[in-house]
Design a protein that fits this description.
mainly alpha, 133 residues, single chain, two-stranded antiparallel ribbon
Length: 133
């Protein structure tokens, strides 16, 4: 993690990319266990963490200040059982993984990860351009 305020957005994008990678792995694991009896789907909810950090900021108008003051240690995503679907089951064996939903979510997450890594690359490109002038 880089310690200059010039890297604030990159640090947040880095955390988001890590969370996206974890969510992709989690969705892939759900798909792999779609036929495992009593398996419950897992998910990663990074967006709520980031929203909470941005909303808790005392700087209510300036996004740069909000991002600068985010506590990055609070932005640690974890894979947890999807509580909204925990008691729900698609099959008699207790498994609640819907392959169609998981595949759509996986494709969406892959696009999000690509967008995040592209954004990180663009931030570094802007810095290189600024330093070369």
């Amino acid at each position: 993690m880089l310690q200059s305020s010039a890297f604030d957005y990159i640090n947040v994008l880095d955390k988001a990319a890590d969370a996206s990678w974890l969510r992709e792995s989690t969705l892939t694991n759900n798909i792999a266990n779609a036929t495992t009896p009593d398996f419950k789907r897992y998910d990663v909810d990074f967006q709520s963490l980031l929203e909470r950090e941005l909303m808790d900021s005392k700087y209510n108008r300036n996004l740069d200040k909000k991002v600068h003051n985010i506590n990055l240690s609070h932005l640690t995503a974890t894979s947890q059982i999807d509580m909204a679907a925990e008691s729900f089951s698609y099959r008699l064996d207790g498994n609640n993984v819907d392959m169609h939903t998981e595949n759509v979510e996986l494709a969406s997450e892959q696009l999000r990860y690509q967008a995040l890594t592209d954004s990180i690359s663009q931030e570094f490109s802007r810095m290189r351009t600024a330093m070369s002038k």
